[in-house]
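Recap slide: Cytidylate kinase, sequence and predicted structure.
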Amino acid sequence: MLITVSGPPGSGKSTNAAGLADRLGLDHVSGGDIFREMAAERDMTPVEFNEFAENDPQFDRNLDRRLHEIATTSDDLVLESRLAGWLAGDHADFRFWFDAPVSVRAERIAERESKPVDRAKAETERREASERKRYLEYYDIDIDDLSIYDAAYNTARWSPGRFLDVLVATVEAYEPVDDEGKAPIEGVNYDF
């Protein structure tokens, strides 16, 4: 089973994808971890690296190509990244989208990264604007189009433990259909 978890920064993707993988006995791959490693290698923050990547599409394409390859060749995996649902295409058995109000996400990021909330909010908004622009330009993906997801959740509505219970129950209730029941995502340029 391939499960994708997508959403904006601070939405709970990493925490819940790791927890879901653990509870279901699946592997976990985080695109965010790979992206942060790429930024650190260049001595940049993720926000700085996002803006740097606007000028050289090869950084995004390399990361997305790698995640696409993982998504299309792996089973028994929870793949987590902002574009995971799009990158997996019709290979995903289940696609989740997580979100929360920007104020909640900024508080989570500020706590995680030991920075003031107002700074985390400003950086998050800059990062999201940068990513939105690049995804549309590179792949013709409107990141705000949630129609490809099987379930979308506002993660601010549950405590972390209860939310994980909701996710596990959702996956356990899933009944796969044959390959003809999976619809490819129309209109997406898969040239990563």
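The beta strands are 2-6, 27-30, 77-80, 94-99, 151-154.
The longest helix spans residues 117-139.
(End of recap.)
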